[in-house]
Specification:
- By secondary structure, the chain is an alpha/beta fold.
- The protein contains eight helices and five strands.
- A five-stranded parallel β-sheet has the order 2-3-1-4-5, with helices on both faces.
- The longest helix has 25 residues, at 68-92.
Length: 204
């Protein structure tokens, strides 16, 4: 779907990475930066809290995952609704959309489960809006596990070190012109400075 003028269309910015990389914190800081410049900014995450996304979330929180075919179907249905009802309407009115996870997460997480990564990408890009910019927040898996342990929350079925390492390896192999690796193992402010530098260069 195309806007009447490319200058009126908003920008889709996606934050990716394994759990514990600080995506939500970086989204909050970038939203504040963009709003200070007069931009309309909306934020969200995937899987969503809709019917399909919650099936995946609830299964993972119980310590078990859905069967792979059902999991993929739920994630695709969730994303279809999200694109149709939230992402595209916001972009069409000129808003910046900042997402915590998108289809690159599916490439990494379901890819680490054995599904062909490029097939996952193709399935999604048949209907999903391609990001203007995506950030892969990269930290060592050991650090991610330490951060998750420090939270004190129960881990879900995806949060174990060998699996997260497999996800990180897939992220590291992704090559899209709009995907930028950001070292995120230092201070929060340093990571945000790297994010803003890319935004200024690519989108502002």
């Amino acid at each position: 779907m195309e806007a009447d003028s490319p200058h009126l269309r908003g920008c889709l910015v996606v934050f990716e990475g394994i759990d514990g990389t600080g995506k939500s914190t970086q989204i909050k800081l970038l939203a504040e930066y963009l709003r200070a410049q007069g931009k309309e900014v909306v934020t969200d995450y995937e899987p969503t809290r809709g019917e399909w996304g919650m099936k995946v979330r609830n299964a993972a929180l119980s310590g078990e995952r859905l069967g792979l075919e059902e999991e993929i179907n739920c994630l695709l249905q969730d994303r279809r609704e999200h694109v149709r009802e939230f992402i595209e309407p916001a972009l069409q009115r000129g808003a910046w959309v900042l997402l915590d996870r998108y289809y690159l997460s599916m490439m990494a997480y379901q890819g680490a489960t054995g599904v062909n990564v490029e097939e996952i990408r193709q399935m999604n890009e048949e209907f999903a809006t391609v990001p203007d910019v995506a950030f892969w927040l990269d930290i060592p898996v050991e650090m991610a596990m330490e951060r998750m342990n420090a939270r004190g929350n129960d881990k879900d079925a995806f949060e174990n070190e060998p699996f997260l390492q497999a996800c990180a390896d897939i992220y590291s192999a992704m090559e899209m012109p709009w995907l930028f690796r950001i070292e995120a193992d230092g201070a929060i402010e340093e990571t945000q400075a790297r994010v803003r530098e890319v935004i200024r260069r690519e989108l502002l």
